[in-house]
Amino acid sequence: MAAGGESSNKVVVSFTCQRCQCPIILDHSFNSIDEHTLAELHLPLYAPPPLELGEKAVDSGVIDKYVPPVSDNENHGFTIVGGSELTSQQSQLLKTHMELFDILSNNTEIDHPLCDECCDTLITLLESEQRAAEDECKQYEDFLKKLESESDTEDIETLEAQLKDLKVEETKLVVELRELKVDETNATEALESQRKQFRQLKEQEEEFMKEYCRHKRELNELEDYSQSLDYELRYAEAQSERLEKTNALNATFHIWHSGHFGTINTFRLGRLPSEPVDWNEINAAWGQCALLLNALARKINFKFSNYQIVPFGNHSYIKASIAGFNVLADNSELPLYASGGFSRFLWDTKFDQGMTAFLDCLNQLQAAMLERPGQSGFALPYRMAEKGKIEDTASGKTYSIKIQLNSEENWTKALKFMLTNLKWALAWVSSQYVQEEIVGSTSTNTSTISKAY
Fold first, then answer.
1. In the chain, N or C: fewer CB atoms in 10 Å?
2. Are strands 255-258 and 15-16 parallel, antiparallel or unpaired?
3. Which Pfam families would you find in this protein's record (predicted)?
């Protein structure tokens, strides 16, 4: 219950709906109810049936529905939410209204007051309950009429025959039930046996699966190892094929040029006033040339006439002899190295003799190459003459390989031409070596095939 504002322009709200809690504005006719009307309203609307408590009440289907009133404090009934100072007239009216709603609530199972919407909803619900009760009552009446119309006399013999048949059928069903119970017991035992066997098979399956996984892992490891070996074999075959195609002489001795200098394995051969190459580098280059020329001669089974090249790093030299006798007696070793200083070469000509002997050995190697069948037209690009001379066939100029009475520029150019001839000789020997290998492998395969047949 709530009270509105004290202003005359505002509507006083004293009650709320006990269902939806909405404020209710009462009709003005509620203000004119006298005591006689209230006394008549106190009379019961209908005589309620005696209320039975306990198990009988539950069995009979009577359920007491109690809807407590809405209140925000400990007091029951309606709640006053208006001002605390009410006039005596308002108190009297409010008391009358409260008494009226208490009468309505006591005579019904529904708490009052209710708003219009809740009243409509309640009426609809009561009407549906009324229709359901009327339908149920009609069904009872129809059933009662049907019972009254049926005859009370029945054929007893027919019923006894039916009873006898039912007892025989009951006996059969009991026997069948016993058999089914026996079958059920046997089936249960068989099922338990099958379950036990299933558990055993499950354990065996797990063991087999573990064994399978172990073998599968070993197989994968073996396959990985086999694949790894296959890759290693392919790599080894590729390396072998590459090495077979690679010429050891070409890979070992790289002859090229660097500006005005000829180089062998990056060692420069020669000197210029503008670029004074260290003599250790020149001696190392001569050692590489001596090693290469000696290797080419051995490759084609050729021996130099009157000379023997001794590769000894940056102190390589050439032994000179005629018919087993030394040309220079005690000084038969012709060095391919020097310590520097052109003034020294004016008095010591062994270095010049060694370079001249090296050029003569290269010329002998060219002659040996020409003696090979099918090589009559072969020639090195620069013609080598006697006494350490090398000729540029393009310009016709001749350069001396000696240092004595020679300029550094001409000496360097002569050494460059000599390295070019040496590179050509290396290429020729390499090509001959490859051809011999091809012929040798072909003959080997042919002999193998002939032996197989």
1. C
2. unpaired
3. APG6 (PF04111), APG6_N (PF17675)
